[in-house]
Write a structure and sequence with these properties.
By secondary structure, the protein is an alpha/beta fold. The chain has a single domain, classed as TIM Barrel (Alpha-Beta Barrel), CATH 3.20.20. It is built from twelve helices and eight strands. α6 crosses α7. The longest helix has 21 residues. The radius of gyration is 24 Å and the shape is globular.
């Protein structure tokens, strides 16, 4: 025999309140973990140079809480400020500095001077609290002998970086995925295989890797312990083009036990050429505003992506 129960409005309201309380307590007991989302400050470099504090505050408000710096030419200051002062701005906004980009070309005739300049840069990065020091580009002959010399130099500089608690890294563009002159070896692969993993790691720029005709996921599988950082990049806004397998990239990167990545947004040519209604060229400030907007949309994409931790 079927039995039917009738509840009063008062009872139903009580049940609803109890259910809501349970859900609320469950939510309180398991708060959503905040994601770490990095940004290469080159993306909005003009704005950071003009006003470091306002720029960091703005990026932090978008959800960026890890930064990679730029010190072109071995600049001892960080966007015009002493390292400790710039770090204090980041600290105040809940952001950590994980890396920097800079490079000093090898000069065998002035080796002592070159190595001393490296030490000065490593001291600055150590003051910022970062873990990595990444060479963003390097001039070398694309022959086995040329890249072997490059690898030996990186090993030498990497040993000095280790004295400061830093890992030397190298950042690729698309050209590194071509074969070496007179060889069937891929330049980037040869460089990885001829550097000491104790002192040298790699920051894989997934966009340039793809443009170079290679699959970032395959490289993450092939060199799981050598790629310690990622540049997450797209044509402009992250995820907008649909041409980069970000889910596969993040999944494999995490499977390798790695976690450090930074978004990099390069100013596209169409934005540099953009005109106002009166035909005048976009100003630096207008370009920076569009770059900040792209940064905000990129952060939103990563925040909402289930595959990003």
């Amino acid at each position: 025999m079927k039995r039917f129960f009738r509840f009063s409005h008062k009872a139903l309201a009580g049940f609803a309140f109890a259910a809501a309380t349970v859900l609320m307590l469950g939510s309180c007991a398991q708060p959503q973990e905040k994601k770490t989302i990095g940004m290469q400050l080159y993306s909005v470099m003009d704005a950071v140079n003009a006003n470091p504090q306002a720029s960091i505050e703005r990026l932090a408000g978008m959800g960026y809480n890890a930064f990679e710096l730029v010190q072109w030419g071995g600049d001892p200051k960080v966007f015009g400020l002493p390292a400790e002062e710039f770090k204090a701005i980041c600290d105040a906004n809940g952001a950590k500095i994980i890396s920097t980009h800079s490079s000093i070309q090898e000069d065998p005739e002035n080796e002592a001077e070159i190595m001393q300049r490296w030490r000065q840069l490593f001291e600055i990065q150590q003051s910022c609290g970062g873990s990595y020091f990444v060479i963003p580009s390097y001039k070398a002959e694309y022959t086995e002998a040329g890249i072997k010399q490059m690898a030996d130099y990186f090993n030498k500089v990497g040993k000095i970086a280790a004295e400061y608690g830093l890992k030397l890294g190298y950042h690729n563009h698309s050209g590194e995925f071509q074969t070496l002159e007179g060889s069937d070896k891929v330049m980037w692969e040869y460089l990885v295989e001829n550097t000491d993993p104790q002192y040298v790691c790699y920051e894989l720029d997934v966009y340039w890797c793809t443009k170079g005709g290679k699959d970032p996921v395959e490289y993450l599988r092939k060199y799981p312990n050598r790629i310690e950082l990622l540049h997450i990049k797209d044509d402009f806004v992250i995820g907008e083009s649909g041409t980069i397998d970000f889910e596969g990239i993040f999944n494999q990167f995490y499977a390798n036990g790695m976690k450090d990545y930074v978004v990099e947004i390069e100013t596209p040519g169409w934005l540099r050429d953009k005109k106002n209604a009166d035909g005048s060229a976009y100003t630096k400030e207008q370009i920076s505003e569009e770059m900040f907007q792209a940064a905000a949309e990129s952060a939103e994409y990563l925040q909402n992506a289930a595959f990003v931790k």
